[in-house]
Structures are given as C-alpha cells and as structure tokens.
Amino acid sequence: MSAWLGLPDLASRRLGGGVVGTNDELFAAADNLVTAEPPGFTPRTFGPKGQVYDGWESRRRRSPGDDWAIVRLGAAGVVHGLVVDTSFFTGNFPPEASVYGCRLDGHPSLDALLAASWEPLLPRSPLAGDTANAFSVPSSAGLVTHVKLVIHPDGGVARLRVHGAVVPDPLRFPDGWLDLAAAEHGGQVVGCSDLFYGAPGQLIEPGLARTMGEGWETRRRRDDGNDWVVVRLAAPGRIRLAELDTTHFKGNAPGAASLSGVDEREADPADAAAWRDLLPRTDLRPDTRHRFELRTDPVTHVRLDIHPDGGMARLRLHGHLDDGVLDTLRAAWRPRAGGGGN
What we know:
- By secondary structure, the protein is mainly beta.
- The chain contains 2 helices and 21 strands.
- Pathway: Nitrogen metabolism; (S)-allantoin degradation; (S)-ureidoglycolate from allantoate (aminidohydrolase route): step 1/1.
- Its EC number is 3.5.3.4.
C-alpha cells in the first residue's frame, strides 16, 4: 500500500472541493467525482438517460477529442498520489486518463482556469475498469489549487481522489489564529488505538457532525485500558481553546478525556516520557460540545485519551501559530506556478 494513500483527499467535498467545469456530463454528473463516500451501484436502475451511475459519465464520442472535468481542491497542497476510480464502470470506462494541476489564487472563473498553464501530474496512462486505479505523483509538481482530469476519449469515472499534503493558505488566518487540528488546514490523524465503528480522521473534518456515524467511535473495552488518538497539527502552535464534542453520542460517550502534547522539534513523539499534560483527565457529558481554555507551550502533536472508550464527534484545537510559522507559510504561497500545460 502506498504511503500517500494515508494523506488527505484534497479534492473531497468534505474539505470543500468541487467540480467547477466539464465539457460533457450527459449520463452522470461530474460533481460525483468529489463525493467523499465510496461509490455505489444499484443494477437495473434506469432514468431518462439510461442506467443511473454514481460517478461522472460522458456520452459516446463520435468526433475527435477528449472529455475533461476541472476540480477546485478543498484544500490546496502538494499532490503525492491520485486515484482514478472506475468502480462499476465496466463496458463504459475510459481506456486512458491524464491529470493536470495548476495554481490560481482567489476564486478564478472557469474562463480563467481554461486559459491557465496546467502542469502534468499524471501523464496519459491506461485505466482498468471497475478498479481504483492508483498513481504516484512526484512532489516536484509544487503547490496546486485546481486539477483537471482528462479522459481519453470518453466514458465514466466514479471518483477522483487527490491525496497530498495540505499547505495552509495564510490569507485564511492573517493573525495566526486557527484550528490547529483541522484537516482543511493540514492537521492529520497519525495514530489511534481503535477505529471499529468510525474513522478517527472524521474528528478533524470541517463542520459539525450530522450523525453519530460522522465521528470516531471505538468498540466496548473489556480490559483496564483506554482508547486514544494522536493528531499531528497543521503547524506548530500554542493551543488556547480545546473543544471536545460528543454530539450524538448519548449512551456511548466517553466518561472522561485528557489531552497531552509534544513538540517534535524538541523531542521524539515516540518517546512516551516526552509528552506533557495539556488538559488533565476531565469528566465528559453525553451529546455535548465541551470547551476548555488552555495555555500551552508550542506543540506539534496532540494526543486525545478517552476513558475508557466510546465516541467523539469532533476535536477542535484553536490557537496561535508559533513564532515564525506564519512567515514560512506566506513564503510557501509567494511563488507562482508556471510552465507548460495542456
């Protein structure tokens, strides 16, 4: 398994990704490309335009050319891998695809995107039908805000996953105050004890959880231990407000929770002795957004321990970037992408 598959999907609708243009979506809408949930399929389900597909599908081409869709990434970053998922497309998948990236700041129009210089992320490559086709991308591609999927010549693609490292846009937090744990800013879950009922990465997704299924939930423990999750923060920072949200968890919320942290610039996170308390073990209430004021030194990783088990909807760690970090981010956004294109 490629390590980059563990990186966030920068194109996901959950992070704010969206399809901003396509040349053809007669059979199925291109918006489906960025749906966070896995594709599904119900056989013999027909609409006015034929079998209903959970994906993007263009008409059969009778002229030269290729079909394309442009995706605005929910979080800009450096792309490390792509998944062109043709699940359930068997006799109607594209035989080949290519992907390009560009960086355009602000809120560019479709015309501006069509006129942009697009750098190749994936050269024209063969696809298999009904398959999550995975491709590594050299990190030299640089910062990307939009990607363009080109299918050769036509057909259907269920999902496009754009895995990469988020590069937080400093314009979103000019004073250096942000949710340091948020996935949209570059926070990432790097370890957990149990994910039986719900993925821990959902803890740091945008917005409020709409159901219990949109949080992290562990199985019932039958021992003396407790469950935990470790988040690598978007950037080193000082936490001032922690939010531990048990919304929707009523009979299965943790009885208590605690927070600890470490600064990897000073100590190895693998060294248990290097972690220091940020929030002592504190009782939690079911179905409640708990908020705790903190005054921490700079940390790069935070561990949430729940006692003994249960479910959490969201974890928010609001605070200030450490000295010099904001300047580093501004420098990362200063250079402009350039070069060839499609």
